Amino acid sequence: MNQNTTISPEEIKDELLRSYPAKVAKKRAKQIIINSVDKATDEVPEIMANVRTIPGILTMRGCSYAGCRGVVLGPTRDILQITHGPIGCGFYAWLTRRNQTKPATDKDENFMTYSMSTDMTENEIIFGGEKKLKAAIEEAISIFHPKAIGIFATCPVGLIGDDIHAVAREMESLHPEVNIFGFSCEGYRGVSQSAGHHVANNKVFTDVVGLNDTVKEGKYKINLLGEYNIGGDAFELDRIFEKCGITVVSTFSGNSTYDDFTRAHTADLNLVMCHRSINYLAEMMEKKYGLPWFKVNFIGAYDTAKSLRKIGEYFGDKELKDKIEKVIAEEMIVVEEIKKDVTTRTTGKTAMLFVGGSRAHHYQELFKEMGMKTISAGYEFAHRDDYEGRKVLPTVKIDADSRNIEELKVSADPEKFKERKKASELDSLKANKNMEMNDYIGMMPEMDENTLIIDDLNHHEAEVLIEKYKPDIFCAGIKEKYVVQKSGVPVKQLHSYDYSGPYAGFVGAVNFYKEIDRMVNSKVWKYVKAPWEKETQLAATYACD
Amino acid sequence: MIAKEKNDPTVNACKLCSPLGASFVFKGIENCIPLLHGSQGCSTYIRRYMIGHFREPIDIASTNFGEETAIFGGRENLTIALDNIIKAYKPSVIGIATTCLSETIGDDVPMYLGSYVNDRKDLVIPKLVHVSTPSYKGTHQDGFYATINSLIETIAEGGEKTKTINFIMNLFSPADIRWFKELSECYNIESIIMPDYSDTLDGEYWGEYKRMPEGGTKIEDIQKMGRSIGTIEFGNILSEKGGAGEILESKFGVKSYGIGFPVGITNTDYFFSLLESITDTKLPEKYRKERGLLIDSYVDGHKYLFGKKAVLYGEDDLVLGLASFIRELGMIPVVIGTGRKTGLLEKVINEVIPDYKSLNISIIENIDFEDIGRIAQEKEADILIGHSKGYKVARDLNIPLIRVGFPIHDRIGGQRVRVLGYQGTQELLDRIINAIIEKKQSDSPVGYMAM
Known about the structure:
The structure holds two protein chains of two kinds.
Chain A: E1 2-7, H1 9-18, H2 22-31, E2 32-34, H3 64-72, E3 79-84, H4 87-92, E4 116-117, H5 122-127, H6 130-144, E5 148-153, H7 155-160, H8 164-174, E6 179-183, H9 193-207, E7 220-227, H10 233-244, E8 246-253, H11 258-262, E9 269-272, H12 275-289, E10 293-295, H13 301-315, H14 318-346, E11 350-354, H15 359-369, E12 373-378, H16 384-388, H17 400-403, H18 423-431, E13 452-454, H19 459-469, E14 473-476, H20 478-486, E15 491-493, H21 505-520, E16 537-542
Parallel strand pairs in A: 1-16, 3-4, 3-5, 5-6, 7-8, 7-9, 9-10, 11-12, 11-14, 12-13, 14-15
Antiparallel strand pairs in A: 2-13
Chain B: E1 10-11, H1 18-27, E2 32-37, H2 40-54, E3 61-62, H3 67-72, H4 75-89, E4 93-98, H5 100-104, H6 109-118, E5 127-131, H7 140-155, E6 165-168, H8 174-187, E7 191-194, H9 219-224, E8 230-234, H10 236-241, H11 244-252, E9 255-259, H12 265-279, H13 285-305, E10 309-313, H14 316-328, E11 332-337, H15 345-352, E12 362-364, H16 369-378, E13 383-386, H17 391-397, E14 401-403, H18 421-443
Parallel strand pairs in B: 2-3, 2-4, 4-5, 6-7, 6-8, 8-9, 10-11, 10-13, 11-12, 13-14
Helix pairs in contact in B: 1-7, 13-18, 14-15, 16-17
């Protein structure tokens, strides 16, 4: 028999902070927030985010190299990627996130199954590694004949003084047919992988986007930014767009190609999925090429419908709007049918999400559709705007870590800037709150009162949350998965999807409903206690109803 | 056959970095937490890699270097990290391994640790064991061995001799490590197995959170290793280079025996006879019987394997053991490759397979999967034996891959793969034969049900 005790979020917060030394506790107190939302203004309390993890505290975060090479450029199949550094980093970034890709023909290039490394040894650490890097580029060109090569710097590179950008320029002058560019994504830069996203955005913007003015055929042309095709999400979205008559010029960067990147500026609109990892590119493209952007969310069937309607609203064309309504109506038939069945078993169950810089927000929608409640959530590498909304951007403190990542000065391109909407049209779109033009409302305003918002959750804190709340499901990554499952709570990985998916769009929502139903109602946990060792279990419920 | 030249880049590497090897060993010490001194990405990547294989919680802390740390040195970060780990985990040992970053800037970690301990004379603090593991020097194997050496250098003590035998592990699976425990029981001998991650990296369901998983070699046992009757250390190349066994022998006079992996009949026979002579204990009936069963399967199975060409890749001492085993069945290891570079592989292969030249066997150090794929194709290999990263080659050539070693990320049960002893060999043998049969069966247009 379960015995329920009600615990307030304040008590949990105290408990979380109790075991820390005073200095650590003081800092963590600002990163653990009890949510409250002013319904009129969407004002939420301030949270401390994007600050360094304290040494010795087991964090979920990765490094700048991981964010650049792994997250943003990893899903691109035909930019040949060379890791400049000792062997570890290149090996670990080799085809590990389950980014799917689908070359159009057998002849199309796909380098995703390769991991090239300069495999630096002591000799290069002492005498410099530029020579070896040049040799690697020569070899890469002679074997693969790629259109483009990206060079990714690991920790020692910056320290020993290798200039990867100079090497890129020099090699490009020898091989003008290959676009060669370097990413200064040394692991110690910034506070997490988020720094690497920014580095990646900058280089893709300056060296790739805008090189090809060939306009793709299509009436409503969009780019999808911050969609990495985990588990085939981008395939499902491509399917939906095609059905609606919307043309995707380029996805950044799920199932993407170099050529699509080069002509992304010819689209009419940028849709931003993962705000954290790619808002820089959206902003810069707006300034330079005149593409407006807005935030979308294709996680959850209802949010997918909502996002599609936003696109219809933006183009303002009746034909498109009607088509979108027709598609939504068609797709929702199956969604509603499965949902009706699944919710009989999932309603009232609880979830926690600690992942990413957007996913902890997006996936709450799916749980909501299943009648499940998110009782605590937080991001791994997000900034304040991802929690509180972009309106706080002017008040975000720029610390030394952020200053280390270059902020590009961008102005309108004299030839390629093209006004997509008149200022008055943009203004009226901006006035429509549902459109979220150039804006992101953030996660906290959409979460319930008294839920616990925790930035950069660590091991010890996860342990306390699990023990106190006993959620029905915990969403995180592989590093958290097994420790949480050892304590009897199933974990859904939202980085790799546990190699399932897709979860985006309408088909994705149905997949997710079924998957979560299976997980929260699994029989496995019933066998944990042998018949001779059954005992009363104590579990707390949440106080945020 | 051409291996990588000095300046060649690596395409799909066949080796991992040394801090990963260090983390393996530290996870095999009771109540120990590894701490990587450098960027947090190192501990995150290594955790992800190990967790993907073992499917267990694996805590590896980091000193979380930032830009200023990289410029001004990591002393303060190290101090803060140690303080926090001690408070949160209450470990008995903290294993501090360096990374490329802290090594490149030349952080003097032993000095930092010395003064950390000095400043806290009144406090009980865990044992701090440091190992230097820059990934630009050596591979994960070198990190593994260096960490064992460090632990023994720091902790082992001499004294009155006991009847205990030391088993120094190589990068074995938890299931293979468990086999050493079981045979110690069967022989009724005292043994110290180090490192022992058989429970920490392959544990039961807990039911409630544990700060540290149970298991691992006890500190008291590492202390006692200097008093044992002898050390058996696994790895021919390892012992050529001088491993922990040698340290125990030169410091405390504990006789060291460096032997190959006990895989296949010859190697396992050698291991058991050595064990018999050191401990003066007869081979238990259980193993005599296992040997008999294995011989019987060799008789049944070798018709499927004779003349088949295999590509072996991975850690040098593993491929050496595998090569010796598959030769017993008449298979030809057309490629014996390792990502490590010692200059010793050919020499030790010559001892095991003296006719390797006439068999046209390519022995390659510093190999990558580009080399492996190319040579496997040229030599028309029938099967690959190694870890998951060979999958691309197996797929391109449409031949089976038998997964052994680390990492195994595309199958379940990497932690339970057995290769050691008569029974481990038996399991491996069955898997190899069945893969060959399955390929033949599915390639057949008829669909025979008896093979």
